[in-house]
């Protein structure tokens, strides 16, 4: 929902009603993951996507009807449906989409969600998407690590869903939970979609050079909160790095160590070392390679790389620690310009996050989308650390 949150909140603040369609469950090669959303505004305009274009037309009609009737509905689109190919879902996947009207009456705590996400606080939204009593549909809880707003309809259901939703929030997962009609843990009949919104992961770019500006732009595009850091104040200026969220003038190793000490570094953090200057790189990588982060890459020629490894070994780093370093940084795309190099770096970050091999898809077989198990451990660790502060 985060990609359409600003549009949804703008409609909500006017007192009007929007149609919100959210992917709550997927099977096989579905084009979008749980949490992907589409908003239909009162004027008929659309924001977001639930299928990359496959079933948008049908979902649009459903959202329009839901706003008119005020009754939410859970719908399935996929190859098991007779009309699947007529609708356009030809990828072989199945989508469960919950469509509901959103207004100040139906979602009174939306402003809290907006504020929590803006302030990088973890928040989960637990919404009833199936129930024998249709009056329960669309009821929701808004949960933080130590707070809860709203009700599903009974104290028993609220307590069960609150406990389980906080577990998902700590793990950084969004999924459908099943209960009995009154929240019985071993029952069936009620389904609750828990959408977890974790703080944005960080990208730390060290070295205020032209390549850093391009990497910062790519990082912001991919959803990272980007910091550019360099000890040279004449180069590290906000004017040169307008897509970065912050620009810091400090010795890189000191800044990184301080951030780690403050608990601001986690297992999703991406570190890009672009200075290719030993007096900056070696002390910085001594700190970085001993941290639990998602990616560490360093720019430089192969000669620079060999010299860097020798210096790091002299500093006491082990082969296991050095094996975590992506150097020379990026995938082999034949990149030449800063912008092309930034794409190759972004591609390597994505490949390492999801377990991709970086090969052309025409040379591979099997599923295109990798399972997210590769990333689940790091997400769990990051949010557990965050919630324990």
Describe the structure using short key phrases:
12 helices, disordered C terminus
Catalogue the unreliable spans: 372-389
SS field, number of helical segments? 12
Shape assignment: elongated
Beta-strand residue fraction: 15-25%
Q: What is the arithmetic mean of pLDDT? A: 87
Q: Whole-number radius of gyration?
A: 23 Å
Main sheet summary: 6 strands, parallel
Instruction: Give me the strand/helix succession.
Output: HEEEHEHEHEEEHEEEHEEHEHEHHEHH
> How many strand elements?
16
Strand order of the largest sheet: 13-12-11-14-15-16
Helix content: 25-40%
Structure classification: alpha/beta
What's the N-to-C terminus distance?
26 Å
Region (Disordered): 361-389
Domain XdhC Rossmann: 203-349
InterPro entries: MoCofactor_Util/Proc, XdhC_CoxI, XdhC_Rossmann_dom
Domain XdhC- CoxI: 12-78, 118-180
């Amino acid at each position: 929902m985060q990609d359409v949150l600003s549009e949804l909140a703008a409609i909500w603040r006017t007192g009007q009603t929007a149609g919100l369609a959210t992917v709550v469950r997927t099977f096989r090669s579905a084009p979008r993951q749980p949490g992907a959303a589409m908003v239909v505004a009162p004027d008929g305009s659309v924001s977001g996507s639930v299928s990359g274009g496959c079933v948008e037309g049908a979902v649009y009609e459903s959202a329009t009807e839901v706003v008119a009737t005020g009754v939410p509905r859970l719908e399935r689109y996929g190859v098991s449906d007779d009309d699947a190919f007529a609708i356009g879902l030809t990828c072989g996947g199945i989508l469960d989409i919950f469509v509901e009207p959103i207004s100040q009456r139906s979602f009174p705590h939306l402003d809290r969600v907006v504020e929590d996400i803006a302030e990088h606080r973890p928040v989960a939204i637990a919404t009833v998407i199936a129930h024998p009593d249709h009056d329960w549909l669309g009821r929701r809880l808004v949960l933080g690590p130590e707070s809860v707003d709203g009700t599903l309809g009974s104290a028993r259901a609220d307590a069960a869903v609150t406990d389980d939703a906080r577990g998902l929030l700590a793990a950084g997962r969004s999924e459908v939970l099943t209960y009995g009609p009154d929240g019985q843990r071993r029952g069936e009949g009620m389904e609750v979609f828990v959408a977890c919104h974790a703080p944005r992961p960080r990208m730390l770019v060290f070295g205020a050079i032209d390549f850093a500006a391009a990497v910062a732009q790519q990082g912001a595009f991919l959803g990272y909160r980007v910091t550019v850091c360099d000890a040279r104040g004449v180069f590290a200026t906000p004017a040169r790095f307008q897509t970065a969220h912050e620009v810091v003038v400090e010795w890189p190793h000191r800044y990184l160590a301080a951030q780690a000490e403050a608990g601001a570094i986690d297992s999703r953090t991406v570190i890009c070392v672009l200075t290719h200057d030993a007096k900056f790189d070696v002390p910085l990588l001594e700190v970085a390679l001993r941290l639990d982060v998602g990616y560490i890459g360093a720019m430089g020629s192969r000669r620079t790389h060999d010299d860097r490894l020798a210096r790091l070994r002299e500093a006491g780093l082990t082969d296991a620690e050095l094996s975590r370093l992506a150097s020379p940084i990026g995938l082999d795309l034949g990149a030449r310009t800063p912008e092309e190099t930034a794409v190759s770096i972004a591609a390597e970050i994505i490949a390492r996050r999801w377990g991709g091999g970086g090969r052309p898809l025409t040379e591979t077989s099997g599923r295109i989308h990798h399972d997210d198990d590769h990333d689940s451990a790091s997400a769990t660790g990051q949010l557990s650390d965050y919630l324990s502060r």
